[in-house]
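To: structure subgroup
Subject: Chain for Friday's discussion

All,

I'm putting the inputs and outputs inline so they're searchable in the archive.
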Amino acid sequence: MAAHTADFVILAFGSIEEWKQKREEYPPLSAILLNVGGKTVDDPVVSEQIKSLSSEFVSTPVIILSDSDDFAQIVRAIDYGAKGYIPATVSISVCMELIALSVAGGLFVPASALFAMRHLLQSNNPTAHPLAGIFTDRQAEVVAALRRGKANKIIAYELNLRESTVKVHVRNIMKKVKATNRTEVVFKLNDLFQSGIPA
């Protein structure tokens, strides 16, 4: 990595504790690249590491380097506070560019995640209701429409509701999945669908 950039000093440590013991020898961190290898983001040790680093180093992007490009894993990593998710299949030069993007304030997820999301949004399977235990029947209908990218006005028309009622449903759905905007709602909903929550 060091041979591919003149912009960053690359430091390798086995743990954040190891870095803390020598932090006085180095300038402040610009980014943290956490290599999880073949472990999953669901692994309690990994998820705790991501959450801990993201909360302790608020102004420093935490970027995950992983052997997996599984959509659910990517969404969880971002949900836990990561500012980027880089599959190990990318070249070192691309990896360095993606780290620079995160340092500049961007957020990166691999294209495979977008394709997976598109596939889920286009899925019109009316029999799949993995969130039935979380939402009312009407909210589940709104969830299905949100996942297909439909606007409130269209949802209101299709479900024979007032637009103001749809807005109330969307607000309640956002609270239930702890989302702050529609995009985050869709990501979190797709994550829950991907997890295979039983009906």
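Points worth raising on Friday:
The CA atoms of residues 11 and 26 lie 9 Å apart.
The longest strand covers residues 32-37.

D.
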